[in-house]
Each structure stands twice: as structure tokens, then as C-alpha cells.
């Protein structure tokens, strides 16, 4: 398990605790698989049904995980999506034929690829701190809703080289909207 940063011994110890009562079988399985350096097969075996997936089992699993120190970061950035002009940052890559003539700004079924600047202020000449790179698509037929899947790639400041991955539904005309941060790298790992 070098790619996941888990040693074979630690993986086995953790999994043995999770399947109490199966220790003789687990010991034999462990010897067979780890003698070949195959801790991935050992973990895959347990993924196939030997771990308690009940709410209680999941709660126990979370309690046994090593917990990282919680970090809180706040910042405010402005995303400028330029869909036309000399240097657009949002390009339509697909659209549904039956909705292409509707007056909506982004009709149902339209897919847009973005590489938008994220800047510190609302003015277009504000300092660029990051880029929003990814896609959004219009997936609401009854209201203007975008499904957004993109990364904030930080290009300057203390977070330079780090990323945040965002995914979620953006009901454009709602005053307050939230997108899930589903991952990150560097400072946000």
C-alpha cells in the first residue's frame, strides 16, 4: 500500500480489529497475501463484504481513523465568467438541439468549459489569486440551475500551487448558494 501511505502491517492490524472472530482465517490470508507484498489484495478482500457496514460499524470505523487537526480558512474571491469578446473565459462545447433557440442565457442542455479568473475584488482589474477551471452545464428545466464541476487553482498568495475541487448545483437566481468542496491539494489537503 505504498501509494496510499499505509503499510501492510498497519492495514492488517486495522482490518483484523474490524473482523473480530475471524483471526485464524485472517492470519492465514494475511500470511499468503503479505508474503507476496500484496496488501492491496488484502484490503480488496475486506471491501467485498467482511467489514460491518451498519451505522454502528461505520461509526466505529470513523472513531478508529486517525483524525487530522481541523483547519479553517476563509477568503473572498470574485469569479468573472467572460462568455464573449476578444478573450472569452467560458466556451460552449455542447448544446441540445431542441433548446438552442430559447432566450435563456444558458438553456437546458448547454455545456460550458471555463478557465475564469478568481480575483480579490469586484473590479475587473483586481489581482488574480486563482483560476476556476472546469465545466458547468444547465440541468434545470423549470428554473435556471447550473451543475458546476470545477477546481480553484491558486496561482498567487499563500495558497499558490494548491487547489480546491468544487461540485454542486448552483440555482443562479437564488440570493445565497452553496457548492460542496469535495477535495483539495497542497494547503487544502
From TrEMBL:
* One BP term from GO: phenylpropanoid biosynthetic process
Please give one Pfam family short name: Dirigent
- What is the predominant subcellular site recorded for this chain? secreted
Question: Known InterPro entries for this protein?
Answer: Allene_oxi_cyc_Dirigent (IPR044859), Dirigent (IPR004265)
User: Quick one: a GO cellular component term?
Assistant: apoplast
Keywords associated with the record: Apoplast, Secreted
Q: Which cell locations does it reside in?
A: Secreted, Extracellular space, Apoplast
The similarity annotation says: Belongs to the plant dirigent protein family.
Give the function comment from the record: Dirigent proteins impart stereoselectivity on the phenoxy radical-coupling reaction, yielding optically active lignans from two molecules of coniferyl alcohol in the biosynthesis of lignans, flavonolignans, and alkaloids and thus plays a central role in plant secondary metabolism.
User: What protein is this chain from?
Assistant: Dirigent protein
Q: What species is this protein from?
A: Rhododendron simsii
